[in-house]
Amino acid sequence: GYVYDSLSSKNPKGVGGVVVILSACNGKESGNTSQCLGSLFTIEKATTDADGHFSINTTTKVKNQSFYVGIENSPYTAANIGYAQANLPTKLYMRN
User: Fold this and answer.
1) What's the number of CA atoms in the CB half-sphere (13 Å) around residue 95?
2) What pLDDT score does 66 carry?
3) I want to staple 4 with a disulfide (CB 3.0 to 4.6 A). Which of 12, 39, 43, 94 is the partner?
4) Low-confidence residues of the chain, pLDDT below 50?
């Protein structure tokens, strides 16, 4: 996936050196992290390259749960939305 500097920019640029986190909700399906009730755990982290590209190739065996992809220490991420493993977002944005 990629991390871009802005969602609203007409020409977003990739951001390097950003830590992207893949998390899961401890075997539960939920719509957002607040519904995860404190059992959210990190599966894997990746750091973006100079162009904003990251790659997470997890081998987790747990399929029936919600997954979250977010930017470490950033409020503007997709981390509060739970996704099925096959539908994880590939574009994240640093700011609105």
Assistant:
1) 7
2) 75
3) 12
4) 33, 78
**pLDDT number for residue 49:** 97
DSSP notation for 35-54: GGTT--EEEEEEE--TTSB-
Q: Model's pTM, two decimal places?
A: 0.76
How large is the greatest C-alpha to C-alpha distance in the chain, in angstroms? Answer: 39
Nearest partner of 43 among 57, 28, 29, 64, judged by Cα: 57
Cα first-last separation, the chain: 18
Cβ within 8 Å of residue 68, ≥6 positions away: 21, 22, 23, 24, 25, 33, 40, 78, 79, 80, 81, 82, 83
- For 62-76, the pLDDT digits (tens) are 656 677 788 887 755
- Contact predicate 22/43, CB 8 Å: yes
Question: Do the beta carbons of residue 38 and residue 28 sit within 8 Å?
Answer: no
